[in-house]
Amino acid sequence: xxxxxxxxPLTPSVHAEGVSNDEFRAAMSxxxxxxxxxxxxxxxxxxxxxxxxxxxxxxxxxxxVSLDPPLVLVSLREGSRMDDLLDEQPLWGVSVLSESQRHIxxxxxxxxxxxDRLLFEDIPYVRGExxxxxxxxxxxxxxxxxxxxxxPAGDHTLVIGRVLTAHVPSADGGPLAYFKGRYRQLx
Length: 187
Prior knowledge:
Blueprint: H1 21-28, E1 33-34, E2 36-42, E3 53-59, E4 62-66, E5 71-77, H2 81-88, E6 91-96, H3 102-107, H4 116-120, E7 125-127, E8 134-136, E9 141-153, E10 156-167, E11 176-179, E12 182-185
Antiparallel strand pairs: 1-11, 2-3, 2-6, 4-5, 5-10, 6-9, 7-8, 9-10, 11-12
């Protein structure tokens, strides 16, 4: 008598360690993270050609690394526009978003979005003195950075930057947080 093997449920993207992408994503969604906007300026392709473009990306994987020297780290999806840009352009900025800037976080996290030039159009900002990158008005804090090290890490690149300037332009409001896949306010 022939026996048929019992149906084995397939778990999508199970890694050798036994955890699936969905299980890992669900567990990590329980970690509350601050929300920042990372910005950089893409230079003109050729002298005398069209001007370069300002680029922005929402990030929740951002942290301080060292006080002396002042270093921060941002995790970028490998091959993303920001990853490619920061591979060529070492200067970038970070705006720590306030709870009233949820619309900025959402705008710069959209997939298949329109030109970044249009996304910056109605948002108050200043150009950083050290990097020329856009820093958001109303942010709780702003940093200007220069890449010190890039570390491949799975499907991401960890970019460590030396902080060139740090300002606290606004003490009003609380931070924008990210928890369980949604932007939230503390309190």
